[in-house]
Each structure stands twice: as C-alpha cells, then as structure tokens.
Amino acid sequence: MFDINIRLISMLGLLTIIVLAGLILDYRNVATKPIRTGMWLAVLGITAGIFLTLSAVLPENEFFGRVFSQVRTTQKVVALTFDDGPYPPYTEQVLDVLKEFHVPATFFVIGENVKKHPELVSRIASEGHQLGNHTYHHIDLLKADRKVIVDEIDSTNQAIIAAVGTAPHLVRPPHGFRDPVVLEVMAERSLKVVEWSVMSRDWTNPGVEVIVDRTVSKVKNGSIILLHDGDGIASQASRAQTVEATRRIIQTLLAQGYKFVTVDEILTKMEDSKG
Ligand SMILES: [Zn+2]
Fold first, then answer.
1. How many angstroms separate the alpha carbon of residue 274 from the centre of ligand 1?
2. DSSP 8-state code for residue 68
3. Which residues fall inside 5 Å of ion ligand 1, going by CB?
4. In the prediction, which pLDDT does 270 show?
5. Can you give the residue ranges of every domain in the chain?
6. Fewest beta carbons within 10 Å, which of 117, 148, 182, 231?
7. Are 86 and 117 in contact (CB under 8 A)?
8. How far is it, in rounded angstroms, from Cα 111 to Cα 88?
9. 8 Å CB contact between 67 and 193
10. Measuring CA to CA, how many Å separate 93 from each of 114, 124, 190, 193?
C-alpha cells in the first residue's frame, strides 16, 4: 500500500530543488517570456518554504492541523503550564508555590525525567495538577522518523502510567514543533496537541522581573502560559527565577481577577464552534 509521509523536511527538500531549478532557468534565460518564469518559480518556492516552516513552528498556527494555543472565552481564566520536568528541587518548589495559592497547573513532563523522579510525578498528580506528554528525550520531532516519534510518545506515556497509573491525553511536542506526521501520530493516540499563547523565554533566565512582565503583559482571557520547571534532559540550569516568577505571576493575575485552571478545564471554556 502507498504510505505517503508528509514531512516538513521532505517538503523543504522538494522546494529547494524547485528554487534551484527556477534560478538555473532564470540564469540561462530559458522561458523569459512573457515574464521571468524561472525567477518567479524560485520566489514561489522560497515563499512556500517560509510558509510551511512557520506552520510547523508557530504555536498558534493550524495549517497542519488542530492545536490548542489559547481559548476564546469571555471568562477570566488562564492555564499555567510547566515544561521539561520533573527536575528537583525546582519542581517541588513550583508545587509548593501552587499549593500555597491553591492554583492548579499542567505539567508537560519528559519521559526520561519521569523515569528518574517518579515520586515527583506522583506528587504532581496527587496535588490535583494535570500531566501531559513532552516526549522521552525532548527531541525535535521534525527531524525524527515516524518510528522514533512513536517510541518517544509511547515510552513517555508508559513512564507516566508507571508513576501515576493513568495515561495523559495531552501532548506538547518539544519547542511546539510539528508537521503532518507528528500530528498524525498524536491523533492515532487521541492526544490533544497543546501549544501556548504566552511565552516569557524563562528558560534563558532573563531575570524574575522580565519573566513576570513578559507574561503578565500578554495574558488575556483564555491564555495558555508557558513556563519551565525543567531544563530539557540536561537538567543543569537553575529554575530558581521561574519559581519566584511563578509566585509573582500568580499574585498579580489573582489580583486582576483571573482564575487558574488546568488545560483540560480551559478547553471546556472554549466558546467557538470548533471546540
Ligand atoms: Zn520542552
């Protein structure tokens, strides 16, 4: 049977050939009438390449398929999400802050880190937070073949099941990167693909103030906020800034009347027809 895998990389490869062919045609003055067909072919190829790349990497883009980056709602609800953990001591510190303010969050965990710290994953779940799959080795899924993508997702689900007894139904691809095959693998497993609408680049440790300002200034009803309690599979960088920023973000948004919910809950607030 014909099994066509639509990958970003193969599409970009094909477009590169089209661009090169266009440039050669233009250079050799083939097909110059009525317009410079070769040059326009090259321009078209480059434009299509940029469009497809943006479709794979922009969190809110839905050209390749449905993803959830925010929810259109009139209710003052936001969802905090933490990626790349579990990672001691920062995951515990984030959990302590969330507990202090009675705020639920969603943790997109890395399988390898789950395997190392199952007790932390179990604490996340027992304190009422939601878990999502963030792949086993935090790899760029655009560069992985279907079998590797399947392994990354399934082994992480198994690690989560081993830690808490249930499989997650949310996934966030590393960096948010996806293409048709990535989305197909997720759909086959009934995993909803969750991106984000508010990002502070907290993983670069730009300072607590910066993380708080970048986050709070962009938040609106239905925002999904991206933060990091972990540091990939390297688990080297400090997440102390994120811990402190989390506290201040929660304080500020609570004072503005926002309610914090899990990703599952925020998706139920969706007021458009696509929900
Ligand atoms: Zn990540």
1. 27
2. B
3. 83-84, 174
4. 84
5. 8-57, 77-267
6. 148
7. yes
8. 15
9. yes
10. 17, 12, 32, 27
Distance, in Å, from the CA atom of 68 to the CA atom of 183, rounded to the nearest integer, reads 12
Q: Which residues pair with 162 in a beta bridge?
A: none
**Which CATH fold topology does 77-267 show?**
TIM Barrel (3.20.20)
Query: Which residues are marked as active site?
Result: 83, 228
Beta bridge partners of 194: 68
Inter-residue contact 73 to 46 (CB < 8 Å): no
| Tokens encoding 65 | 């398929």
Q: How many residues does the chain have?
A: 275
Mean pLDDT, 10 residues at a time, over the chain (275 residues)?
77 95 88 79 94 96 97 97 98 98 98 98 98 98 97 98 98 97 97 98 98 98 98 94 98 98 95 54
Q: How far is CA 122 from CA 19, 160, 168, 212, in A?
A: 52, 9, 13, 28
Residue 84 alpha carbon to ligand 1 centre in Å: 5
**245 CA to centre of ligand 1 in angstroms:** 18
Find out whether 82 and 229 touch, Cβ atoms under 8 Å: yes
Ligand 1 mean position, distance from CA 75 (Å): 28
Q: Which two tokens stand for residue 230?
A: 């972990």
CA of 39 to the centre of ligand 1 (A): 40
Torsion angle of the four alpha carbons 231, 104, 62, 109, in this order, in degrees rounded to the nearest 10? 30
- Note the pLDDT of residue 39: 87
Run of H or E including 5: none
CB 189 within 8 A of CB 153: yes
Q: Please give the pLDDT value at position 106.
A: 98
